[in-house]
Automatic annotation (TrEMBL):
Protein name stated in the entry: tRNA N6-adenosine threonylcarbamoyltransferase
Species annotation: Mariprofundus erugo
One GO term of the biological process aspect: tRNA threonylcarbamoyladenosine modification
Catalysed reaction, written as an equation: L-threonylcarbamoyladenylate + adenosine(37) in tRNA = N(6)-L-threonylcarbamoyladenosine(37) in tRNA + AMP + H(+)
Cofactor(s) recorded in Swiss-Prot or TrEMBL: Fe(2+)
Gcp-like domain segment(s): 29-314
Similarity comment: family membership: Belongs to the KAE1 / TsaD family.
Chief localization: cytoplasm
Cofactor note as given: Binds 1 Fe(2+) ion per subunit.
C-alpha cells in the first residue's frame, strides 16, 4: 500500500511517501521532505504557535506536490493519507489534518490519524528493525521523556516519565543559559565534543531513586548557578561554554542511560528502542552501546529521530497495513497520552 504521510505537529512541516508490503510487513520510503521552521522561530527563542501554523499552511501543498513528483506517483496511486492528529500545537495540527481530510475526500481514499509519539516510538521500523515484543522504549524529545513498555503495536504501558522538564527541553533551556541559539540540543552536542565534563560537576537528579522517573528542572537550575558564578552568559569564554556543554550532556545522558537500562532489567525485556529528537545525540548513543551489555539496541536513523513524516507513514502502516479499518470519527488532539492508545482492530472476515 502506498501511504502519503503528513507531519505538522510542531515546527517541522514534513511529507513522505511510503510503500508498505502487507504480506511481509516491510516497506520503503519512496520520497520524503522536511521543511524546518527553526530559523523563523530562533529569533523568538522558541516556537511561536501562530507563526508555526502559518508556515505549515504555506509549506504543505507545494511539498505534497514535490514528494509525489519525486516518487513519480499520482493521486490514483495513493491508498491512504496518514497524518499526525496529536499531540502537538492545535493550530499546527489542524493545518495537517484539514489538508489530509480535504485531499482524502477529493480522491476517495481513507485518512489514517497517527499519534506523533507512536510515530517516534516505531521509527526504528523504517529501517526494517522493530524488536520482538516486549521491548522498552526511551522516548526523549522536545516535549516528552518517557519509558514505555511495548507489548504489541498499540499496547503501551508508561513505566517512567519526567516529573517536570523533558530531556530535550533541558538541553534547550540549558543552551539558552549559555547564550546558545534555539534549538539547543544540537548546539550543546557540538560544543561538548571539545569540552571537559569533569570541570563542572552537575547533579544527576533522581539517579539514586529506585524508580524509572526523571526530573530535569534541578539540573537546569544548577547550570544557571554555575553560569552566574562565572559572571553570566556574556562573560563565558569559548572553553567555559564547551566544558559546560560537555557537563550538561554528560549529566542528562547518564540519567537517561541508567534509567533505560534499569527498565530493561526490571521488566526482563532486554531490547531497547531510543527515539525522539534527543535520540540523535551521539554521546547518548555511544553511552548506551558501551553500558548496555546484554541489551539489544534499536536506533532510528539520525534523520528519523527528530520530527519527520516517514515515521508517521510507518506507524500508519504498522497499525493499519494488515487491514484494520481507518477510524470513522476522530479529531486533532493537542493533548493525547500515549498509553491511551489501543491495539488496532483487525477486520473479522467470515
Ligand atoms: P515532541 O516529539 O515531544 O512533541 P518535538 O517534536 O518538538 O517534541 P523532536 O523534534 O522529536 O521534539 O526533538 C526536538 C528536540 O530534540 C529538541 O529539544 C532538540 O534540542 C533535541 N535534539 C535534537 N538533536 C539533538 C542532539 N543531537 N542532542 C541533544 N538533543 C537534540
Ligand atoms: Mg521540532
Ligand atoms: Fe517529535
Amino acid at each position: 500500500m502506498n501511504i502519503l504521510a503528513i507531519e505538522s505537529s510542531c515546527d517541522e512541516t514534513a511529507v513522505a511517501l511510503y510503500a508498505g508490503d502487507a504480506a511481509t510487513g516491510c516497506g520503503r520510503i519512496l520520497a520524503e521532505q522536511i521543511a524546518s521552521q527553526i530559523e523563523t522561530h530562533a529569533r523568538f527563542g522558541g516556537v511561536v504557535p501562530e507563526v508555526a501554523s502559518r508556515e505549515h499552511l504555506a509549506a504543505l501543498p507545494p511539498m505534497v506536490d514535490a514528494v509525489m513528483q519525486e516518487a513519480d506517483l499520482g493521486w490514483n496511486h495513493i491508498d491512504a493519507i496518514a497524518v499526525t492528529s496529536g499531540p502537538g500545537l492545535m493550530g499546527a495540527l489542524l493545518v495537517g489534518t484539514s489538508f489530509a481530510r480535504a485531499a482524502a475526500c477529493v480522491h476517495g481514499i481513507p485518512v489514517l490519524p497517527v499519534h506523533h509519539m507512536e510515530g517516534h516510538l516505531l521509527a526504528p521500523g523504517l529501517a526494517g528493525q522493530l524488536p520482538a515484543f516486549p521491548f522498552i522504549t526511551l522516548l526523549v524529545s522536545g516535549g516528552h521523556t518517557m519509558l514505555v513498555r511495548v507489548d504489541a503495536i498499540g499496547s503501551y504501558s508508561l513505566i517512567g516519565q519526567t516529573l517536570d522538564d523533558a530531556a530535550g527541553e533541558c538541553f534547550d533551556k540549558s543552551a539558552r543559559l549559555l547564550g546558545l541559539p534555539y534549538p539547543g540540543g544540537p548546539e550543546v552536542a557540538r560544543l561538548a565534543r571539545d569540552g571537559d565534563a569533569s570541570r563542572f560537576p552537575l547533579p544527576r537528579p533522581m539517579l539514586n531513586k529506585d524508580n524509572l522517573d526523571f526530573s530535569f528542572s534541578g539540573l537546569k537550575t544548577a547550570v544557571m548557578y554555575a553560569v552566574r558564578k562565572l559572571g553570566g552568559s556574556e562573560a563565558l569564554s569559548d572553553q567555559d561554554r564547551r566544558d559546560m556543554a560537555a557537563a550538561i550532556e554528560e549529566a542528562i545522558c547518564d540519567v537517561l542511560v541508567s534509567k533505560a537500562l534499569r527498565a530493561c532489567r526490571q521488566q526482563r525485556a532486554p531490547r531497547l528502542v531510543i527515539a525522539g529528537g534527543v535520540a540523535a545525540n551521539s554521546h547518548l548513543r555511544g553511552l548506551l552501546a558501551s553500558r548496555g551489555k546484554g541489551v539489544e539496541l534499536f536506533l532510528p536513523e539520525l534523520r528519523h529521530c527528530t520530527d519527520n513524516a516517514a515515521m508517521i507513514a510507518y506507524a500508519a502502516f504498522a497499525r493499519y497495513g494488515a487491514g484494520a479499518p481507518a477510524p470513522a470519527e476522530w479529531d486533532a488532539r493537542p493533548r493525547w497520552p500515549l498509553h491511551e492508545l489501543t491495539p488496532p482492530h483487525t477486520l473479522i472476515s467470515n
